[in-house]
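Q: Can someone sanity-check these two? First one:
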Amino acid sequence: MAFEFTQENVARIEAETKKYPSKKSAVMKALYIGQEQNGWVSNEVIKAVADRLEITPEEALGVATFYTMYHKKPAGKYHLQVCTNVSCMLRGGYEIYDAIREKLGITNGEVTDDGVFSLEEVECMGACGGAPMMAVNEDFFENLTKEEALRILETKK
């Protein structure tokens, strides 16, 4: 199935490319825009980004596979990222991850059968001072307990 950016998203990418001396520098934003539109970064999104920025698909793929913020497969309506790196681990990151995993019946990289939630264990989200933390899509929650994390899930049905 072919992927094409909407005209609005083409304009967003073009505006982003004007910030840099080379179109290639807008690859992260273009991939993110593609993910927003498609729900994940498919091979078709990679190709559309590469075509738009005049780079090879391999260059776009290299960026998409390096960063965890890009979904390489379909994600749930609410994508949960739980940090389990050192600061978060020491302050309960694994307890939060395990509680969510048990509550939803899924594990790392999986999506609930109804497509509402997906779960990802991540290495670092840059919030060590507010550990433990998790993100629900673009919303960040810090200084969590497993009880608070489960309450957050209840608000996302």
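And here is the second, same format, sequence then tokens:
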Amino acid sequence: MPLRRPRRVRLVLALVALPFLIALAWAASAERRSEPGPLLLVGGGTTLPVFCARALELTGGADAVVLIVPQSSADPDAGLGSIEMWREAGARDVTRLELSDPDAARRAIRRADLIWMPGGDQSRLVEALTAADLLGELRDRHARGALVGGTSAGAAAAPEWMITGKAVPVRLEAGATDLAAGLGLWPGVTVDQHFLRRERWNRFVEAVLSHPDRLGVALGESTGVLVRGAELEVIGAHNVVVLDARDAEVLPVKKGEVPAATGLRMHVLRDGMRFEWVKTE
């Protein structure tokens, strides 16, 4: 007959082990929370209901805490349309980021499950968040799992370096596309938006050739990418164009000269298609 420990001994052992088990569970939970959240970037135009549906599906449905970041616009009513859009999609807790109270703004970012940035001027958006010292909060919240998305300027601002829109090249000319520091949410990528309707081939191609280490992702209107880990998924009505110069032979040129390259890869994607944007060896 196997020996059994007295009940009191078993209880003491359980109490001793309990903090250790709680610590393990907390660490596992923290590790899950430390995974970056998805990105949902839309090329402008009509924000289709499917975008909101997919975002809420990933962030808690009607219980998701949605924060609108409207600082790409100088309009005092900016963001009200987005609040209505997300409420119509089913979200119950939807608020707008206000910068008048920095502490309240930080708390709003920290509690958000879904952060949405409407259109306007991407440079204005980045400058406003930088001046309010909120860029670090936004990046940290995304790194800890919040979905961050945006349309038009909100999408353009997502990368580490963004196309500002200050220059519209009429031909391919090295250095003609103006770039500035973005939000830093999608490193290693150059994003353009309103791409097909506004015929932004010149600035997009030039931006990719000037920085061939970054993958180019150009979003058509009413079309977006859902980025999770190493993969992006196309959602919407039109196309996403991916231009990859990372393995291309790009001729060295000085600013103002005509650029050239061979061996570029272009992918024209549509709704439902997936693409591994992280380069694998």
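A (reply): Looked at the second one. Helices lie at 7-33, 49-59, 80-88, 102-111, 122-131, 135-143, 153-156, 201-210. Residues 36-273 form a domain with the Rossmann fold fold (CATH 3.40.50.880).
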